[in-house]
Amino acid sequence: MLEITSPTTSAAKLVSSGLSQLPTELWFEVVGSTEKTEWPTLALVDRTFRTAAERMIYADIDLTERLPPVTVLCLQALAAHPALAHHTRTLSLGGVEPPEYYMKCFFRLLRRALLNMPNLDKLFIRVFAPLAQYLIGCPFQLTGFACYGIWDTALHTWLEEQPSLKSLDFRGFFATRRLVIKPDVLRDLRYACGSPYLLRAIVPDRPVLLAELHFPPLLPFDALDMTETLRAASRSTGPLQSLVVYLGSHFQDLPPLTLLETLRMIPLQLPRLDTFSIQLSEGSAYEALLDGLGGILGLFEHLREVEVFSLAEDDLIHDEYLGGSIAIAWYGRCKTLRVVTLPSGRWSFRG
Fold first, then answer.
1. How far, in Å, CA of 80 to CA of 113, rounded?
2. Which of 116, 223, 247, 275 would bridge 82 by S-S if both were Cys, CB 3.0 to 4.6 A apart?
3. What CA–CA distance (Å, rounded) separates 105 from 125?
4. Longest dimension (CA), the chain
5. How far apart are CA 192 and CA 209, in angstroms?
6. Strand boundaries in the chain, DSSP class E
7. Given CA atoms 171, 174, 177, 180 in this order, what sign does their dihedral have?
8. pLDDT digit string (tens) for 271-312?
């Protein structure tokens, strides 16, 4: 028998169905073997099912593709029911851009929900507003944080509360004139992703193993920026093992020699990289770039894997035959290479 007093499952009054008492682990196994879309229904079957289903429903909350009203309803449920929020390990929010006069109300609601999440481990937020002030004092200790928003002094303060942070991805605007991170902050950082400005501040003297470098699309490409960022990356105590470079549309306007000379700085500053990747977010992988890249790969001391990706499906690296020829040519230049990955395939070499 079931009496629903609220549209949320947490407020439903359940009467035991008389199902036999089984180990809790078995209930989690049963619920986990069903489709995610069935979990809300299972939460209404029995108190034991409810415990297992709620734990799975609220463990990983992804609202990045949800309409703002749905996001607000979910946050209201988490703010009103601490027992539900207690299960949340991952929370992803994106695309919420209410009018300015609603923004503070939204962030207050978000903070109320976050204050109920002591077990939150990863947080992703894509809201272009100064939100860090609403994170300060929340009970969780994150290992992963991704934010597409505004970096301000409050974010500095909040980072000091997160000694367990291993992954930091920030893309957006900087509201501070100088980006200076205290030496005792982010001491356990393993993954860093962002602009040259950010990486120069957070990679040196920290055990970063993987760095992803994004050049802001609205700013002109600066070769000096690249050089200074690579020098900073070489100061990782990891040491740095993997580097991903994202090239936008403005790189297509550079003379090939200028681009190649800039990329050549990578093996000169980071000769002991294990993996290297170039991601063309716009434009195509033209022949001069691919030919010159072979010589650049040969400058690494023990590069094991390289990946080049583009969205232009008509370029050379999308052709399987030509892709194989490119992979073989690169291996001829870099004998330590073991894997070449292109959109058209993946090639392995034994050495």
1. 8
2. 116
3. 16
4. 75
5. 8
6. 2-3, 13-14, 60-63, 90-94, 122-126, 144-148, 150-151, 167-170, 173-174, 191-194, 210-214, 242-247, 275-280, 305-310, 339-342, 345-348
7. negative
8. 999 999 999 988 888 899 999 999 999 999 999 999 999 998
Angle of helix 287-297 versus helix 256-269 axis, rounded to 10: 20
Distance of alpha carbon 84 from alpha carbon 61, whole angstroms: 11
Nearest to 95 by CA among 73, 63, 129, 120: 63
The residues facing 169 across adjacent strands are 146, 193
Pairing, β 173-174 against β 60-63 = unpaired
331/303 Cα distance (integer angstroms) = 10
Note the pTM of the prediction, 2 decimals.
Answer: 0.85
For residue 268 the two structure tokens come to 């000169």
d(CA 14, CA 176): 53
d(CA 277, CA 286): 16
Residues 36, 41, 43, 47: is their CA dihedral positive or negative? negative
Q: Which two tokens stand for residue 163?
A: 């000694």
Q: In which element (H, E) is residue 43 found?
A: none
Residue whose tokens read 């992979």: 327
What is the CB-side half-sphere exposure of residue 295 using CA atoms within 13 A?
Answer: 10
Cα gap 289→199, rounded to integer Å: 25
Query: Tens of pLDDT along 8-65?
Result: 444 444 444 444 465 555 555 555 556 565 555 555 555 656 666 677 778 899 998 8
Contact 50, 20 (CB under 8 A): no
